[in-house]
Amino acid sequence: MPKAILPFSAILLGEEEIEEVVDTLRSGWLTTGPKVAEFEHAFAEYVGAPAAVALSSGTAALHVALAVIGVGPGDAVITSPMTFCSTVHVIEQSGAHPVLIDVQPDTLNIDPEHVARAVETTRREGRNVRVIMPVHYAGHPCDMDLVFEIASEFNLAVVEDAAHAFPARHSALGDIGAIQDHAPGHAVGFSFYATKNITTGEGGMLTGSPSFVDRARLLSLHGMSRDAWKRYGSGGSWFYEVQAPGFKYNMMDIQAALGLHQLNRVEQFELRRREIALKYSEAFSEIRGLQPPTEKGSVTHSWHLYVLRIVANELTIDRDGFIRCLTDRKIGTSLHFIPIHMHAYYRDRYGYSPDDFPVTLDSFLRMLSLPLYPKMTDSEVDAVISAVTEVALSHQA
Ligand SMILES: *Cc1c(COP(=O)(O)O)cnc(C)c1O
Q1: pTM: predicted TM-score of the whole model, two decimal places
Q2: Which helix (H) or strand (E) holds 228?
Q3: Between 115-124 and 144-154, two packed helices, what is the crossing angle to 10 degrees?
Q4: Region 268-294: what's the mean pLDDT?
Q5: Whether pLDDT at 217 is above 90
Q6: Distance CA 25, CA 203 (A)
Q7: Concatenated DSSP letters for 53-88?
């Protein structure tokens, strides 16, 4: 029988999670109930946030954050082209204009050096730049001290796409998810999609100040409020007031039941991810033609992804060839990401060409993501290392 391929991603779910979901089903609470409230509190406490609201996805968290800020037509939002499409979709869905900024060559995070000029240019074009959405690519925190500096200079709200960055830390500012006292608003969106560092199948979380999160909670459930009933008490229990045309973005108790157990195991997950990433980097840093990812001294990486870049002129094969050789050796890989400006919709709508963001383009052409998840055994990790090493050594220029 042919050897099965080592999958790029696999979920580590224990019996406890399974039992908890069964218990939740027996409790009769299927939709948003006590488990969701418990998960929100536990998550907020973990990252040191004043408040959190659990949502149906990471995308929902980002979308509702823009709605709380009141982003709409005529506005512009700054983000990175090196991200998943939904970061930019929510800007489009809000009716606003995305402004993409090229990334730093080492971390592939948005380069704060270019932001000031982009804000000025965009404002001259008559658009109101309201928000910056930094993406913590692969789980490496952005230079948030610089981002906040620029945000306060230009009076921008900050919505972090932390889909990869749980748990991750910035040594001066604390955990990603902690909230800074920032004038036009600060919120952080997380994803619990099946491949992310902790999962609820589908799900997300938004952290922010208590007032930001209250508004997000209202907008995430049809814009319905029971506060008027609580205030006046005369309307009866059937009474609610619709205060905005809100979304249907709430999380279910079944999802939160999974999330609570995953959260309990996050330290164990974090250690294992780091252990595997360091083992990869130790092996690959010696090999000509391979560029392992970096971790700056000022941050703690969540190691959501291990993105290896090949050095084109050191090898006789290109990235696609490298991936094919790994597939032949039964190693699953993935790619994060096809840059936003190269997707048909954004290319056609904004007339981008591939080299509009040269650092993003260069890295895209050289990158691949290797398997990295707590469920991997030591021998699976070794199998990845030998396959990558073999492919690189047998194709030296
Ligand atoms: C996964 C992901 C999202 C979206 O999260 P969902 O929970 O799948 O909606 C957003 N941004 C980035 C960078 C992601 O990787």
Answers
A1: 0.97
A2: helix 227-232
A3: 30
A4: 97
A5: yes
A6: 18
A7: EEES-HHHHHHHHHHHHT--TTEEEEE-SSS-HHHH
Tell me the β-bridge partners of 98: 77
What residues pair up with 100 in beta bridges, in sequence order?
Answer: 79
Is the pLDDT reported for residue 235 higher than 80? Answer: no
Atom number of ligand 1 nearest to Cα 135: 13
Bridge partner residues of 103 (DSSP): 110
Q: What is the mean pLDDT of residues 166-195?
A: 95
How far is the centre of ligand 1, averaged over its atoms, from the C-alpha of 190 (Å)? 8
Residue 178 contacts residue 48 (beta carbons within 8 Å) = yes
Confidence check: pLDDT of 1 > 60? no
Catalytic residues: 196
* Cβ proximity of 255 and 201 under 8 Å: yes
Pull the structure tokens for residue 110.
């948005």
Pocket around ligand 1 at a 6 A CB cut-off: 57-59, 83-84, 86-87, 135, 161, 163-164, 191, 193, 204
Per DSSP, the residues of 333-360 read: -B-S---GGGSHHHHHHHT--GGGSHHH
